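$ fold --in a.seq
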Amino acid sequence: MTYAAPLRDLRFVLEELVGMDAVAALPGADHVNAELVAAVLEEAGRFAADVLAPLNAPGDKAGARWDDGAVTTAPGFADAYRRFVEGGWNALSCNPEHGGQGLPKSVAAGVEEMWNAANMSFALCPLLTRGAIEALELTGSDAQKALYLPKLIEGSWTGTMNLTEPQAGSDLAAVRTRATPDGEGRYRIQGQKIYITYGEHDMAENIVHLVLARLPDAPAGVKGISLFVVPKFIPDADGRPGARNDIRCVSIEHKLGIKASPTAVLAYGDAGGALGELVGEANRGLEYMFIMMNNARFQVGLQGLAIAERAFQQARAYARDRVQGTEAGVRGGGRVPIIRHADVRRMLMEMKARIEAMRALGIVTAHALDLAQAGQDAGAQARADLLIPIVKGWFTEQAGDIASLGVQIHGGMGFIEETGAAQHLRDARILPIYEGTTGIQANDLIGRKVARDGGRAAHALAAEMRATAERLPESGELAGLRAGLLSAVSLLNACTDWMVATYGTDIGAASAGAVPYLKLFGTVAGGWQTARAAMAAAARLEGGDNADRDFHQAKIGTAQFYAAHVLAQAGAYAHQVMHGAPATFALTDDQIAA
């Protein structure tokens, strides 16, 4: 089926939950208003639906092709990328100093959801480029910024990040790639990197790799890793792509999903060393790379939202068209579309409620990133840092569940590739894995973001959630939201206190509860946002806004479903957090294998 961008919901979140005044108050955003945002979203939605979405299923079938070191992307991808760049979409949220348009991240997040929902394999290329841009902006030399940023922001050059090696996986302390000074201010890079998204392709005139490697005198472990910029083609004196660097694409991976996105194995320095430049200071590469990682983790969270939305749209359309059986409780009724069956409605509402909660939380997190970058809110960076592992981990875990529900709604036809539902499930499966697994996100959350500051940032956010709950009425159609959110926030606070206390005395027990804690936090934060949405919608209805009456009434109904079916799971997560560790370690390794 075709993809339709959820424009009305995106505008609602920006206007009601973030506030256009708050967006316009950001430095350099005084020109941003509801009319501009609506125009940007509408045009992006049109590009996503008309250009990118039609390439999604064919790209899945054709995949990317490797031949003697060269990679050809799926038919239509190169032309779509050319149109993407010509339309200025790559520069949307980038710094105007280097050719970007400077749109706030809170607005760009909605656009990026569209790219990924329409065609996630395509959208991965600009996603990685944006991470390279941010890393060079913050850590590159003036010369590196002048050379690389205009091309990367324009999109005529693309970027990658090169962390993983065959023996290392997520353990970056085991990185072996070497960087040897060449005596002329540059370095010869030698080693192999794996899982490099768009590490080789035919869509841009140059590819700029940011590579982790070790200097000859580097200390062992993560403290001895430096970051280097290593282009596929070495720019000449005029900044144009020149001689081919000593980088070879050994192969591309054969994957479960995102098959049109080439995932490359890159060999550096087989002919003496790929020429690169040190970025920033020596032995601070991991710190710099985490700039890219942080950006990428937020973007991957948006991918989870996006693929969930695409699966929902397809399942909803199928449920409305597929006629089968009679409606329970209706005597003498004829055969009905399956959307009239109670369990199908439950699954569709589960998809819808979770998606709207994610969308709201994702854009609110993007606004926190905007505020942190602007330096306008002392607590914005702490809030963004707290929420990013939740956005990455909770969104992507939900994406798999929601895509699986989409297959279930299709019944047996969902298991058949021709319907397209299976592709969404296959594509979604990578999301909880790359850019740090859910376990890694959860350990980051409990360690760096909660235990390190004694739970202050987590409790501060929970206090805002409680304040929202207390503004909900004690009677009427929103009363159930109040009771459910107050209870869930209390559980979250109790688990935060438990996590802070336990992390310092029994890190194993804390780690056993880390993923349930992340899911609890995401579930409660989602309930917070759906409650805020319900209050805003109720206010619109009370004010006589009848133009969008069905939309606003649906917001209230969706929040009620979320509270009854999703937020109600908070108690189970809390029990896992505080009481699940003994069962986790109850068996020995041999007993697990028995």
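$ fold --in b.seq
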Amino acid sequence: MKLFYLPIVFLFCLLGHIGIVSAQNRSITGVISDAETAKPLGGATVQIKGTILGTVTDGSGNFKLSVPPTASRTLLISMIGYGRQEITITNDQPLTIALRPSSELLDQVVVAASRVEESLLRSPVSIEKLDANAIRQSPSANYFEALNNVKGVDMVTSGLTYRQINTRGFNSTGNSRFLQLVDGMDNQSPGLGFAVGNLFGVSDIDVESAELIPGSASALYGPVAFNGLLYTRTKSPFDYQGLSIQQKTGINHVGDPTGDGIKPFTETSIRYAKAFGNRFAFKLNASYLKGRDWYASDNTDIDPNTAPEKRGSTNPGRDILNIYGDEVAQTLPGIGRVSRTGYAERDLTNYDVYSLKLNGAVHYRITKNIEAIYALNFSQGTANYTGSSRFMLNDFQLTQNRLELKGSNFFIRGYSTAENSNHSYNTRSLGQLINRTWVRDLSGNVVSPDQADATWFTRYGAAYNGTINGVSGGSDVTARAFADQGRYLPGSADFNQQKDRYIGIAGLQGAGVLSQSKLYHLEGLYDFAPHIQVISLQVGGNLRHYAMETNGTLFEDKVNKVRVNEFGAFIQASKTLLGDRLKLTVSGRYDKNQNFTGNFTPRASAVFSPNESHNFRASYQTGFRNPTVPDQFIKLNVGPIIILGGAPSNSAGLNAYENSFTAASVGAFGAAFGQAVAAGTPFPQAVAANKDKLVKSNVAYIRPEQSQSFEVGYKGLLGNRVLIDVSYYHGQYRNFLINQVVIRPNSPVLLADGTINPAAASDVLTATNRQAFQLYTNAADRVSTDGASAGLTTFLNRGYRLNANLTWAQFNILDANPNNIPAFNTPRFKTNAVLSNDKLTDRLGFSLAWHWQEAFDWYGTFTQNLPGRIPAYSLLDAQVNYRLPALKTTVKLGASNLTNNYVVQAYGSPAVGGLYYLTLTFDQLMR
């Protein structure tokens, strides 16, 4: 409760101070226009030089700025696509300022690449940026989807509310190797260990910019930024004031062959911001999206124990990709492999999804160079995603609090993230559990769930063998119908009752997923540039604390709470030489997790700029990734096997890492022993003769993954109308996190002389004297990747603009065991092209975006790492917009996937079709 009241007290203190400071300031007003057309420029930035004070012009080009008496008398005027100006204030008369068009590409500034402002052209590493204007003009349905047109980006769409982003390979639907920051806050779910795409975060109308770094950013941002970084910044209430309302209305499921007709889609976003002089400002945001998600309904038989040519609807042992419960299978004597009858995903999950995002912030400028911020973000939504199973994030909540103090050359930021999984559940487990509630024995009595599977197969075998009166033998159809007698049909009252019951039970006895875990983070940065003239120097660091709460369902945390601490610190120095033509930068970061030895990740780069238009860069980068908290501490007994995280303390007393055999050697020993006994060899002699086939496991506790890469590139302007950006990289990876199955006997594995203990060999033959474990560890194998990208941005005549890029990625497995390496899951080639014109007429604009990527095989734990083909596909997005300046309104008609090409982007996920929408945006009303 103290934390709840603190922001309120803070707010009232600030409000009491506003009246005092406002009287001391003076107001500067003016209008900014285009020097060539004399038309007003909305969105131009006006800043007091040497301070953090500033504002943005409204749609009519007007601005009003409250200036403290001690502040500089110089204004900095800037806008993308126009040359910057410095204006000296000589009196209090309104200003009339005309900006001349210049190369937008020359003036772009980024922050994420070096954590300080620098020219986009002189960034030491590859970086891409979408500003508010680019987001507004994008033909994609939202800013997150628009990132798919950025070169080097791989995006997996699992549904309306969940898209996952990745760069440079090793892609997945739950990406824990890519860092997503929103205003500096990690957007990950502490329990899941990754950011849930666009389900949580910020609405389009509050996004100021998004910067993306493909490739490791660990040297500056720590372990999560192993494969890349997305940094999203929201709009300051000082700069962007007034009321903005955006209403999207649309449809999807057009021509969906697996659906039941066209479905509506809506998204409503509201933003209000107000500043009181240059001291205090606040903003409030609300966004609500709802619609019918796409259906995962692939009927491909993926049973790994059936020959490919015999798979299909007539296969008695079929395992249909998006049907759950049929994974339970058994080989029946004289019959063959038979699987249970499953339930379709659409009968088990909820496709009516939504996303609610609420956030607010108060900003107070203590001085002209220091600003305090408190922000509260609350998100709740539903989404279906594909992991080791298909999961339904149902009413999943994420709450974040942020308190920040920042100046022109420093910041201190603290935030917390709390999740509540609410009614989330495992869809595949749900199907299996419902299947165990209605099975009858041969006398017609319903058996207990623990006997249901065995009883069902007994019924099937009896019917197939012709021992049931009135049932013809030798037929899968009739045997299955007999075994399925009493089966709960989807939609029936009994089915719905069991579905709700098992969703409400978390852990192995149910399908529910329980997590109320939290993350706490404190970090700071100081830039010594104002104090040191010889070099540019920045230092920073962070502390992080995970507090996991699953009530014993995932971790052994009912009594012994799972808590993890880590910290990191970095230093970066840069120096310009040769008359500012050469910029050298070196940085190094040290990170320490309480469960691992520390990691040092250096980065070095050089940028040579013979002039401001041509820039050559080279860099050496390193990265690392700590195993997630579940990787370290999961302790889940699933019956025949215990899934055990790899932190040493997690396995204390279990003797699994220290005293176990490899699963493969146990299989070889068991087969040889069985043959010997069948040939008449007595038990002890059979054990002694074959025990040396057993191999003691050598499984290490987990440690961080590591990478290093080399990159060269060129970014340059040709005649201020064409930007060329090309790059090549080579990366090497080691210590990838894997799982390894071992068998632990009750007796010591080895005798004193190092030979296999016969007692241990006897133990593995008896179920009560052995235990199987799935251990988290690292592979010693090394692999490498190579990649290149080329991008072209050109301004054509009459306002037309063309962006085109091509990306190539190559995975080199070298001598590695494929079972020890995460799936690359990345097409070799992909390309994007965007043609746009924001000024087709005074009021009319349009954009057209085309994306294509090559076919590739997708490997995932959902299909036991068996490959599923992702065919080559292309997507076409389009939008046309019309502005009504007098009403401060823009009308936008658009389509994501205009041609309605249903495509699957991750094997086991739904086929995604077109989304057609109409957007009305009312901007900066009541300013």
